Amino acid sequence: MNRILAIFSAVILTGAIFLAVQRIPPLRDCLDRISPARHVVLISVDTLRPDRLGCCGSSAGISPVIDFLARRGCTFQSVIAQRGLTWPSLASIHTSLYPVSHGVRTNGQVFPTPCAALAPVLKNHGFITAAFLANCTRQDWQGFDVIGEEAFGNDYIVTNQAIRWLTRTGDSDWIDSNRIFLWVHYLAPHQPYSPPRPFDRMLDPDYTGPVDGSTECLSRITVDQVNPAPGDLEHIIALYDGEIAFIDREIWKLLQALEDTGVLPQALVIFTSDHGEDLHQHNRYFFHAASVYGSTLDIPLIIAQPPDRMIPGVIPVLAESIDIAPTALDLAGIPVPAVFQGTSFLPIINRQYMDPGPAFSEWESKILSVRTDTHRYIYNPLKFHPPTLPGASRDLYPIGMEELYRLDFDPAEQENLIGSIPNETDDLRSEIAAWKKIYGWMSTADENTRINLDDETKRQLRTLGYVMY
After folding, report:
1. Which of 73, 87, 183, 403 could form a disulfide with 131 if both were Cys (CB 3.0 to 4.6 A apart)?
2. Structural domain boundaries of the chain?
3. DSSP alpha helices (H): ranges in 198-306?
4. CA–CA gap between residue 442 and residue 439 (Å, rounded)
């Protein structure tokens, strides 16, 4: 049994792992003596809330492998997605641009013009690039030598494709003579919440009530504006958590293959999500496409390297998903393109002072939000109510013209403080106004972005609740 298999077996058996952290030189000192990370591995999980992970404070015990990865690197305390929707968010992760800049404003929309992005930049510096994706292969991802075959919604296939590529290609001589960039994107825990056995009964085995994790059941709760009984709501969340536990096991398989092929000891591993999920916190909603709140916009971010290269710990400053690509390039020793709008977090990883400022998110050309360490301000000048379900009333997800939440006292964002703290409100209005001017964001009364899709892409997106027409 190899080293990583032994470690992860112990993790899964015990539900936790305690690693002794030795005194390690600062990262910059290490980089002066050894070369930057040879390989880059990006693992992204769709619809994953950070507050369900042990490394982010959960006691559910469903993410031992992810938690192990966190102990191997730096876990970011607060990271904000630039849109609570898969294609725009992933585009921001890869291009380090806000959606208004890269032009992917909704699902099914490809890049209007080519952008500098993580894969093309790495490819231009000699990396072999490969992507294996559960639900977004039809986006025009540029710069990849290999994109896995269609694996819509099947995370088993995604893992197996990535492992086959690694083991067929990655003999020791090939690994020693090449640099690789591998991106794996998983779909679970996306709705419907239907984890495979044994994860479907792992957390709530005795439940016999009327609800399940199907899209039909969850949609009825939203449309009928139902408050489920506590046991019913707990069961739905247990199914969502079961999906996370399943993906945690898939990540174990992937990391084991990376270890077996010799990639992991030389790799920078980045773990993140495209967005989170409303779990009945706002407007009795189980989904993410309509949301502008932290339940959907907060995402996990772990950046891990071998122990002699990085001091493990928690990064307490506020980050954005557009910061991932420049940080990855910096840690790989590759110049960051000037067009990137994000910031490399190499200084803060190296325990140097850094104040990146507030984080911004968009809902197409309708709504903006700004997040600081203590507040979230939502700017909705058109009083727009996002669509929730095909054919459903827009009144199901009302958002005020302005909303303000104090997160240190109200992390669930339930009490709108607009009108009660004018100084903070004015400051955040000024932040929004400055951001709009810099990036050319304009609010419009036009309907949501409509795009021409082939029938199969439209079918897939409709299956996921991604198109409302």
Report:
1. 183
2. 3-357
3. 215-223, 230-260, 294-297
4. 9
337 contacts 351 by C-beta, under 8 angstroms = no
Burial class (CB in 10 A: 0-12, 13-18, 19+), 129: buried
Q: What three-state secondary structure class fits 313?
A: strand
Tokens found for residue 138? 């039809």
CA distance 254 to 172: 17
Average pLDDT over residues 106-119: 90
As a whole number of angstroms, the distance between CA 133 and CA 152 comes to: 8
For 266, half-sphere exposure in the C-beta direction (CA atoms, 13 angstrom radius) is 16
393 or 248: which carries more pLDDT confidence?
248
Q: How far apart are CA 76 and CA 53, in angstroms?
A: 13
Task: Using alpha carbons, select from 335, 278, 325 the residue that is nearest to residue 301.
Answer: 325
Residue the block writes with tokens 């949301």: 291
Question: How large is the C-alpha radius of gyration of the chain?
Answer: 21
| Assigned token pair, 302 | 């772990």
Report the C-alpha gap between 82 and 325 in whole angstroms: 14
User: What is the DSSP code string of 140-165?
Assistant: ---S-SEEPPP-TT-HHHHHHHHHHH
Q: What is the mean pLDDT of residues 211-238?
A: 95
| Residue 309 scores a pLDDT above 90 | no
Q: How far is CA 140 from CA 104, 124, 150, 432, in A?
A: 11, 18, 14, 31
How is domain 3-357 classified at the CATH fold level? Alkaline Phosphatase, subunit A (3.40.720)
Helices (H), 155-214: 155-169, 172-177
Strand 127-133 relative to strand 179-186, pairing: parallel
> Distances in Å between the alpha carbon of 356 and those of 342, 359, 373?
9, 9, 11
Question: Is residue 466 pLDDT above 80, yes or no?
Answer: no
Tokens encoding 372:
């600081």
Q: What is the pLDDT of residue 137?
A: 67
pTM beyond 0.85: the answer is yes
Whether the Cβ atoms of residue 397 and residue 323 lie closer than 8 Å to each other: no
* Residue 168, pLDDT score: 76
The label of the residue with tokens 């996002």 reads: 386
Cβ count near 337 (within 10 Å): 17
CB-based contacts of 111: which residues, under 8 Å, 6+ apart? 91, 102, 103, 104, 139, 140, 142
